[in-house]
Design goal:
The protein has 8 helices and 15 strands. By secondary structure, the chain is an alpha/beta fold. Helix 4 runs parallel beside helix 5.
């Protein structure tokens, strides 16, 4: 242990970044040399599963105290997996830490497998929309978004993942995406009752789009306006409006499994496709625009990206 303690701080912090945060914090008892070292680790991961059942309060206290003591000027990554019974205060502290420490990656996930019913929906604070200006990647899972009362600002965000997220209303999705001027990757897995009837994706810089919504509710639809798109995967079962607003001259590959009445309009927007995996629940499909297609059945595994 003495020989390891002689290593420079930068190397020790690199080693600690590969350990679970709970284990990183325990290094403070090793010696005076290690007492405050953990507070400068640049990657933090909190998982409620690391605590026994019924210890949600202990986990909440651990998250709260360790984040308040953290001193790293920049966080490369902050990830938190909460149980349904975990106090919402952890989310507020998590977001404030991400803002204060200029986090590059932020992952907030609610584990809905540990409870048969939702005790308290976890609502993210509106400060997330304006304070996390250094975020490059944001992943949200099973949380509730508040209505952005002010301008949304994610000037550095390039990857956005939204899984089973509930939104305030139809207008909130375009407003959030409008605040991402350099967004390149958008992965969305919608859930029933997410408060959005028409999911509008209007992002001029977007290169990869994965959109999935399979449920018994068929009224929802989508509208896509992403002229720079290069890769697209859509799996939507709906009787609502489905459309692509402008052509996508850069798109190279697509996987589509949709149920709607505007398949010709959708397909005619994909004029530069080289590869396509297609599953359309309609009787008539026009292929006149696909003179560049090389493969109509290649196995695109978009699920891996989710």
């Amino acid at each position: 242990m003495d020989r390891i303690s002689e290593l420079p701080d930068a190397l020790l912090l690199k080693i600690l970044s590969y350990l679970p945060t709970r284990e990183v914090v325990t290094t403070m008892v090793l010696s005076k040399r290690w007492k405050y070292l953990y507070t400068f680790v640049q990657t933090l991961e909190y998982d409620h599963k690391s605590y026994p059942d019924g210890e949600d309060r202990s986990f909440s206290r651990f998250v709260y105290s360790s984040l308040l003591l953290h001193e790293a000027p920049v966080l490369k990554g902050l990830s938190i997996l909460l149980g349904q019974n975990t106090g919402a205060i952890d989310i507020g502290v998590c977001v404030r830490t991400a803002i204060k420490r200029h986090a590059r990656q932020l992952n907030i996930e609610i584990d809905d497998t540990c409870s048969t019913e939702t005790i308290n929906p976890v609502v993210l604070p509106t400060s997330l929309y304006t304070g996390c200006t250094m975020l490059v990647s944001l992943r949200l899972n099973s949380v509730v978004l508040m209505d952005p009362s002010s301008t949304v600002s994610f000037p550095s965000l390039r990857t956005l993942v939204l899984i089973s997220v509930k939104y305030p209303n139809n207008e909130s999705v375009p407003k959030i995406l409008a605040g991402c001027p350099v967004l390149e990757n958008l992965f969305v897995n919608r859930c029933p009752g997410d408060n959005v009837n028409l999911f509008v994706v209007r992002v001029p810089t977007l290169k990869i789009l994965l959109l999935q919504k399979v449920s018994d509710i068929h009224a929802d639809g989508f509208l896509i306006d992403a002229p720079c798109l290069e890769l697209m995967g859509i799996n939507v079962n709906t009787k609502g409006f489905c459309g692509i607003e402008h052509n996508m001259p850069n798109i190279d590959a697509a996987s589509m499994c949709v149920t709607c009445n505007r398949t010709e309009q959708i397909l005619s927007s994909l004029t530069s496709l080289q590869q396509l995996r297609l599953c359309l629940m309609t009787s008539k499909v026009t292929f006149k625009c696909f003179f560049l297609l090389k493969d109509l059945s290649f196995p695109l595994n978009f699920c891996l990206l989710m």
